[in-house]
Amino acid sequence: MVSDKEIAHAVAVLRAGGLVAFPTETVYGLGADAANPDAVKKVFAAKGRPHDHPLIVHIVEAVQLAAWAREVPPAAHKLARKFWPGPLTLILKRAPGVNDLITGGQDTIALRAPSHPVARALLARFGGGVAAPSANRFGRVSATTAEHVRREFGATVDCVLDGGAADVGIESTIVDISGPQPTLLRPGWITAQQLEEALGLQLALPAAESPRAPGTLARHYAPQTPLLVMEADLLLELAASLARQGKRVAVLARSAREPLLPGLTWVGAPSDAAGYAHDLYANLRRLDQAGCDVLLAEAPPQAAEWFAIRDRLTRAAAGAPPPEAT
Ligand code: TXA
Ligand code: MG
Predict the structure, then answer these.
(1) What angle do CA 259, 260, 261 make, to 5 degrees?
(2) Residue 283's pLDDT band (cuts 50, 70, 90)
(3) Over the chain, what is the mean pLDDT?
(4) Which of 59, 170, 171 to mutate to test the pocket of ligand 1 (most atoms within 8 A of CB)?
(5) Nearest CA owner, ligand 1 atom 20
(6) Who contacts 201 (Cβ-Cβ below 8 Å, separation ≥6)?
(7) pLDDT-derived band of residue 205, with 50, 70 and 90 as boundaries?
(8) Mean pLDDT across the stretch 262-284?
(9) What single-letter DSSP state applies at residue 35?
(10) Which end of the chain has fewer CB atoms at under 10 Å, N or C?
(11) Ligand 2 center to residue 136 CA distance, Å?
(12) Residue 169 CB less than 6 A away from ligand 1
């Protein structure tokens, strides 16, 4: 998939202050040497991301936590032991000397040890931390394939490691353990229930005013086509009515069966949460590119394993105008 030679090249690019896009098990990351402020600046420029939105530093194993965090509480060890390497990001108190660019000037730092073998090979060989947001332009749908990264950034990225389609498909769960009570900042494939079980206590929900995480802005992960999320029966009715008005409609279905309608672009998503998450961003990109007037997504179930998916779909839909205005 990715040769030793390619990893060596990517490491050289990182050492030279360049940008390397790499696969993780969640989504692709746009990486730079976390210890090189000029390299980190390039990440913000490439993404068009505001400077007060901090980056996750990727490491290969938990022993490196001490290099980036000044306190590593027992909860961090517990969670790292149970879920690392894997799709979980920990927020800890930053170590002195960590660049303000990475933390957005905050007193905390986000750290994650990804499990994708290519990410691990890159991080192990590089040795240091790699600051990497999701490899998409600010506010847009995350990239889950190398091809999506290339389309998103073109030549701005010095090196793209192609590790195939990301396994999980949605961004890591983020839990803040820098304060007195662990707080879930971003839901992900690792659920709040799993974290609570591992910690033996209840998580707090973030204070409404506090999030600085762009992944927690109301409108995020957004396709360009206005997106509406609704139950299957309503979706079918609306699709039929819009088609009658001559509108082109794109549908992300889960259980609904495709009706015979003119101007319809239909994607039937997997009916299990893992499959649905895996395909979600690729499906949104595909539907977005169909050039339709509106994109209708069937609402995911209420079960815990669908929680992060519902979160991403809701954010992707936030701010979409009503269908008659599309
Ligand atoms: O799965 C993932 O987490 C992917 C892969 C590449 O690792 N990365 C990712 O990065 O989603 P990004 O930058 O798109 O989202 C990271 C989120 C942002 O919302 C950022 O604001 C938040 O983490 N974050 C970073 N440092 C933080 C901190 N110190 N306190 C609170 N939130 C923080
Ligand atoms: Mg992102």
Answers:
(1) 105
(2) very high
(3) 93
(4) 171
(5) 213
(6) 182
(7) confident
(8) 97
(9) T
(10) N
(11) 7
(12) no
